[in-house]
Amino acid sequence: IPGYGDSPPVEMAVTAQGRRTFLEHVFQELGMQRPVLVSPSMSGRFSLPFLLAHGDQLAGFVPIAPVGTKDYTAEQYRGVQTPTLILYGDRDTGLAPQALQNLQHLPEHRVAVLPGAGHACYLDKPEAFHQALLGFLHQLK
């Protein structure tokens, strides 16, 4: 994610519109058409503005306790028709409940909870994570 960790800051990533545009450019440069967007934690600042503006360009959306879900209204989420797998670890008691509370307004969602996993559930329980993700991907076809 530009501007986080050791990555250099990106001027356009300062606003939600800029982050959405950044993601648009990434998809264009990679030649991706209707990708599935997997969005853990801080990447929610990029994925959520994109989802709300261009959800129809995604084959699916997999939020993993993303930040920023409270920045949007239930009505905004209800307007998104992108198939969504809300995925989180049951030991993530901070961000996951808030994300679920907001993202459950997405009409085409299902939820997968990984027992014994924390915020980085894909690291804590990789096999269960991959099973849930692959099950969702197969359902999209």
Order of helices and strands: HEHEHEHEHH
Number of helices: 6
Query: Major sheet: order of its strands?
Result: 1-2-3-4
- Mean of all residue-level pLDDT scores: 91
Give the fraction of residues assigned to helices: 40-55%
The poorly predicted ranges are none
Return the CATH architecture: 3-Layer(aba) Sandwich
Over all CA atoms, what is the radius of gyration?
14 Å
CATH superfamily: Alpha/Beta hydrolase fold, catalytic domain
User: How would a crystallographer describe the biggest sheet?
Assistant: 4 strands, parallel
Strand content: 15-25%
CATH topology group:
Rossmann fold
Distance N to C terminus: 29 Å
Tally of discrete structural domains: 1
Describe it:
It is found in: Cytoplasm. There is one protein chain. With 141 residues, the protein is α/β, with parallel strands linked by helices. The chain has a single domain, classed as 3-Layer(aba) Sandwich (Rossmann fold), CATH 3.40.50. The protein contains six helices and four strands. A four-stranded parallel sheet has the order 1-2-3-4, with helices on both faces.
Give short descriptive properties of this protein.
141 residues; AB_hydrolase_fold; alpha/beta; Rossmann fold; 4 strands
Blueprint (SSEs and pairs):
Blueprint: H1 16-30, E1 36-40, H2 44-54, E2 60-64, H3 74-78, E3 84-89, H4 95-103, E4 109-114, H5 121-124, H6 126-140
Parallel strand pairs: 1-2, 2-3, 3-4
Protein name: ABHEA protein
Keywords: Cytoplasm
InterPro entries: AB_hydrolase_fold
